[in-house]
Predict the structure.
Amino acid sequence: MSKLRAFSIRAIPRVALACLTIVLFAFLAAAQSNNGNYVFLLASGFLCDPGDSSTCPGTAKSNQGDSYELSGAGTFDAQNKSVNAAGTYTHKSPNGSVLETGVWLAGELVKFDSYGAAPGALRRQGLAFVPAPFGPNRLMMPSGPMPTGGLAVFRIRLLPMRGPSRVAVLQVNCALGDVPRERSVDGIRLSFKDSRGEFSEVAGGRVMFLSTRPEVSVPPKTPPQASTPESVGLPTN
């Protein structure tokens, strides 16, 4: 393999993830007008901490020790089951060698179980949604999205750099809100119908769902009326 080809293969996931970050903001703006929609981040964007390797990527391991690492972003509607999401993935052997890398696309939302809103989640991470210029630990986003916990199950298609595509079921868990005890950790699980089997051991990755709510309109203030002698009880001439 030439050096140029090797560089291209390594660069594709990085370029794809950078594009996803840009697309995420478009998703946020588009989802803002649809009640009941959700935006989600899977081990990407502001969820990643350079000093903490457990935040990104999202990792699921099998009983044999090999793993799938995923990152991505998208939107979905919990009522009509529509979804627009994509990301990158890497399949690694038990000793950490890369077996396969590529892109994943979500084709169906199987179900979404909400754990409820967690308004303070972003502030705990030093982030805030504010309509103000960029500043320390501030992220410019449209007003309205609310951090929400839940478990989303997607049917996805994996598109490897080489070889045929495959269909898998991806579980994405965000441990915010009223979290069930058995789902108390952020992470992913992946399952295949073929011999690849189950990747059910959560081994890292931070997840967040953002519920997009319609903006509350504030009624216009009634202008104060000018005071007259009658209004204040004074005698008139």
Summary: Helices lie at 3-31, 121-124. The longest helix spans residues 3-31.
